[in-house]
What does this fold into?
Amino acid sequence: MVRGAQGQFGSGRSKHGVVKLPRTLDERKRCPMHCSQVWRSVALLLVVMTAGCGESLRLDGSSEENLRDSIESAKARLSTEDRLEFEDALKVLVFGDVKSLLDLAAVDPDSMQRRIRDKLDGKTIHEIISDAEEIRSSRRAEQRGQIAGEIEELREKEAAADRARQKLDAFVVQRSRFYYDESGYRRTPIIEITVRNGTDVPVSRAYFHGVLATPGRSVPWVEGDFNYEISGGLEPGETATWSLALDKFSDWGKAPVARDDMVITVEANRIDGPDGEAALDARFTKRDTRRLEALRSQVAEPPRE
It folds into this structure.
């Protein structure tokens, strides 16, 4: 029985024995001190009752049927929003250590059922949601580490490409021309270039990026890469002219035939030394750039100046 709520408020109970609490602001102002304590007790009781829904019921993993029944019983106690959170947490716990569908295919179904029952047995709703959040948090940390590692690799590649590009300026394409050779039984695209090796590296293979366009047009006819293995190499200070026959089924073979206004610009983006390994590599592709920007946006990393 609640004592001290008598006087103006009578015994503090209705004729049915239910505690009558002050309802209006005026009544609460005139209510004795312990009356507010009753309010706090009621609020605390509501919190405990709500928490108990997730704490009192534990999943039973003793059998597949018992586990299924206990999961359904737990879901029946939850609101729609909480049920969705619980279901998502179950998926995270059950499949948290599965890396791919191949992992699932390699596992014996019976052993998987036992593993799932063991993993969920005895856990409350709250514990399942908490465990799932720990797994998600661990995944996020792992993903951040992977992203940071790839960003660093791309940044190093970009910086190396910038350094190489400065040195490759000495490997000069002095002249370039595009045309079709129709002397044989098939039309073959040809790129003719004159190159001077102003670097200190003997070059065994050179890699180029070319853009075939018509002045005044916004979009080029062809843009792409090609390379040439140099017979005998190209020593420092030497100049050579090559006519490079390209695959007619490549993009270069799709260039217009009946146009005399096309101009091709060519620049070297890599040279290999005498050992066949890259001596200078300035290739940092558009795909590399897009990938770096996408990764930076995920971790909100500002671009380097």
Q: What stands out?
A: Residues 1-23, 32-54 have pLDDT under 50 and may be disordered. Residues 164 and 279 are 9 Å apart (CA to CA).
